Amino acid sequence: MTAATASPFAISWRCKHSWRRASVNTSWCLLGCSIGDMGTIAAFQLGGWPWDPMAIMALAMVNGLLTSIALETVILSRQMALTLALKTALGMSLISMLAMEAAMNLVDLAVTGGAQLSPVAIPLMLIAGFLAPLPYNYWRLKALGKACH
Q1: CA distance to 63, 77, 98, per residue, from 41 (Å)
Q2: In the predicted model, is pLDDT for residue 4 greater than 90?
Q3: Cβ distance 102 to 135 under 8 Å?
Q4: pTM for the predicted model, two decimal places
Q5: What is the dihedral of CA 72, 78, 84, 88, to 10 degrees?
Q6: I want to staple 107 with a disulfide (CB 3.0 to 4.6 A). Which of 117, 123, 126, 128 is the partner?
């Protein structure tokens, strides 16, 4: 079996170093995704624009992906040329980012009933956004030797 086809059960799930690294990677991704996601929701909420909540959430997910890629590009550009940093950022795991975005927006929907930010919803959104992709990011590190950051 090659690393690319490694079963999620064929790795050790007890490596503290990999959990720490996956947590740091996930935190950076969460920061980027949250800026775009919550920024979009806040703009519609504060602007009072009458959009369908599901359309706002879809736009928030797209903006979350874009800001995550932009943040990653800026971080990586300190280590490599800008074009290579952008290419690397675009090669990050979209599965991880989509899981994060979906978890955040599902929690928002469950807590507020729509695309709204509240003092109760925000921490729950961030927790869900962090936890949803974390096992996948750990697996990527262990099985494939790749990180989303």
Answers
A1: 10, 29, 17
A2: no
A3: no
A4: 0.87
A5: -30
A6: 128
